[in-house]
Amino acid sequence: MSTMTELRLTRGESKHSQDMQVDKKLPGKVLGLCSTRYGLALIVHFCNLSLVAQNIIMYITMVAMVNSTDHQSLLNSSTEWLPVDSLGGGNKTPKSLPAGVPLYDWSPKIQGIIFSSISYGMILTLALSGYLAGRIGTKRVFGCALLASSVLALLTPLAADFGIASLIVTRIVHGLSQGIGSGGQFALWEKWGPPHERSRLCSIALSGGIGCVFCFFWFVLVYDDPVSHPWISTSEKEYIMSSLDQQVSSSKQSLPIKAILKSLPCWSLCFCCFSHQWLLNILIVYTPTYIGSVYNVNIRDNGVLSAFPFIGSWITGILGGYLADFLLTKNFRLITVRKIATVLGNLPASAFIMALPYVNSNYITTITFLTISCGLSQLCQAGVYINALDIAPRYSSFLAGVSREFSQIAAILVPIITGFLLSQDPEFGWKYTFFLMFAINLLGLIFYIIFGEADIQDWAKERKLTYL
Questions:
Q1: Model's pTM, two decimal places?
Q2: CA atoms within 13 Å, Cβ hemisphere of 348
């Protein structure tokens, strides 16, 4: 034939391009913490802190909102006024409580439904938000989501006063905005994150994880890519663009849905994120309840004790990103680093949680185990959670949204199943809950270890038709 069509890869031609940790040809590397991209990561960090705080505040306040000592006396009543001595006797009872604090008669099952309701909204928007962010820009998508989430968080107490149905509907709508915010930010690092810095940048951004105020900073200071940023230095802009030259394409092509559905590496992301989300939901949703029910501590002390694990996770999350990037500079293969981080963030963390019922005679040991578990769990941020940037940088925002949307199924199931187990048998319910979590976590981890990859997949590479 006089002419033939040849598919030529215009970017990422090297078979081992993902294992090249430092590109020696990059001009003018700008690695300082004062650079624009690190400032951007810090802004995203505080915005994520707002989103996470707005998400989990219900799990903390539930201990104070529910009369756990006498459900039967409050049947047929939606709210009562909180008496001074209603949270238990002995030295651990608060000496005084604010007048006019509403008290709700919500069983563990009802609490589980309330906890899971926010996830119904999130599961509808995570993948869509990732796609939209890649198409119209992260700045608009994430900024609007943060503003909506902040307003809805302020309306939650009012919704609770109107009844359980109003609260659930509000939390579902709140979940829509949370999903848009959580899934819509990954497109940022497709254009701002040099490959060997993505672990630390994502970890800084995600380690937070107060609302309306930060929306102002977001819209003023955040830009979708280095090219449109008005204050970035020329040397940093050239460094970022050069480091991404082999990965990022400005062309907007349709999503290869069929190829994604057939991709085992993509499914490994989804299953591993699902299993890890199961662990995180046990930690986030039920840590305050577990501390309060097992040790009967008062509200003030419970809040302080519940905070210790998350302080540890904040520190470990940031350090884990730096450690991952450090290993990459020492010629560790990218997939090896991702799997090491994922294993360390799953297996030890779930094992410490599973051991809690056997050390419940000592609450210092319990808090220590929870702190270690919560801290280690954040290592996955440098592992499976940013793996989408490795296997398909051109579709990373969409894949990150899909994997997180799939993992939100766990956020729906955990409160429902745990609420059922605790209502059936309060003593053994915690053991069953923790053993189930460990089994699910282990299965998801094994699937990821077997099928997880870090090379750019064939369907994610840009192809161009040339005629010879």
A1: 0.65
A2: 17
